[in-house]
Amino acid sequence: MYRLAVVTDSESATGFRLAGVEVREAATPQEALEHLRHFVSLDYGLIAINERLLEGTEDERARLLRGRDLPIIVPVPAPQAEIESGEAYVARLVKEHIGFYVKLR
Question: In terms of CATH, what superfamily is 3-79?
Answer without folding.
Answer: ATPase, V1 complex, subunit F (3.40.50.10580)
